[in-house]
Amino acid sequence: PEAVQGRSRRFNFSTDAGHRYERGVDPSRTVQVIERITQLIQEICGGQAGPIDDQTLKLPERKPVTLRVARTERVIGMPLTQAQCADALRRLGFSLEEGEGTITVTPPPHRFDLAIEEDLIEEVARLVGYQHLPTTPPLAPITARVRPEGQRSRFDVRHRLAALGYQETINFSFVEAEWERDVAGNADPVKLLNPIASQMSVMRSSLVGSLLQVLKFNLDRKAPRVRVFELGRVFLRDSSVATTDSTVKGVRQPMRVAGLAWGDAQAARWEGKPQRADFYDAKGDVEALLAPVLPTFERTEHPALHPGRAARVLIDGREIGVVGELHPRWRQQWDFAQAPVLFELDLDAVTARTVPVAQPVAKHQVVERDIALVVAESVAAGAVLDAARAAPTQGLLRDAVLFDIYRPQPGAASTGGLAEGEKSLAVRLSFQSDASSLTDEQVDVAVQAVLAQAAAAVGARLRA
Question: Which residues form the B5 domain (predicted)?
Fold first, then answer.
């Protein structure tokens, strides 16, 4: 049977002989079978049978199997003697030899299912009687695993995204090689030795391609609005990874979460036509997903995203993902009426969270000051806000919010005091003290500290 088993499935060629021989055929009963066939032929068709010439040169020998009585007791779960085990095996017609605590059985030629010790234990249990086995319930102590406060579950991530209006999708980890080259910028993906289809020949290194395929599927069926996400594993080449119980040598397999929004930012409502989902909608969803952690965003380039509408997401200076609008090239290739917005984040960074600390409610009112800062066109607004928050205000500055951007029109007579290549950022500063109400002098000192920090960090000046 060992020479035949699995060959039919391997070559996808099934025959009656293969079906029978892979289950084993008793070579010692060949003459008996021929005699029976001959008898049936004579009874049905008549005729005269000739003699049989049986030349037995060599029959396959069955390997002896040893049964340990002590192990039989442990597996079955009840006390047994060697005499009980031997009696059960003799009732099956087995030839056996007894030793000290062991019974060696030579299986008969027709019992191909007896190959290891557990097969004999099964026969002993069957003949002793299943009704005699004790019904003692298993002892399985349960130890509660308490999740650390600084970590949230994947279910919580799914629940948060569902609350933001996204629907979860589950996709294959096998994708087209063109996706990896175009959308992920991966020229050397992990290839499959036996792909189930030509368009599923490599392992994905990004979830973006899978979400674009989901979007295409839904748009082909006239979906007016699509918001989907996926939690899945990606596969990246990494020579530092060794083979373990959960890893494969040379392949890193991190978990990621990605989302895609297409169509209206909000469902249609009676008061007016909603706006299309854009970069800032996806950015807001990322901030809501990571809350209460405050991420920062820096302009970046990504093979799948628009060159001027893409940003990398950072937490404490460490990049955890990207967010942006689909590149116009891929929008045209996939035939999308409008560009979807996407984000992709490392799941470990998303599940990590800070433990909240109770803070007393301030009893004194907030003082707000609006300032207009002139910076170079290349300076990001986020850099200005980071500089303001880093100013030495002795804890008085509670928030800094951008509420307006001014750029002079080309060729305009008045430029508002701005030189060519400059822009004006209007920032609202909020000051508050837990000890007492702030005076104008205290606020003025804090504002000057913010201006000095902004000037040193990004070269900003106060607009005249």
Answer: 60-135
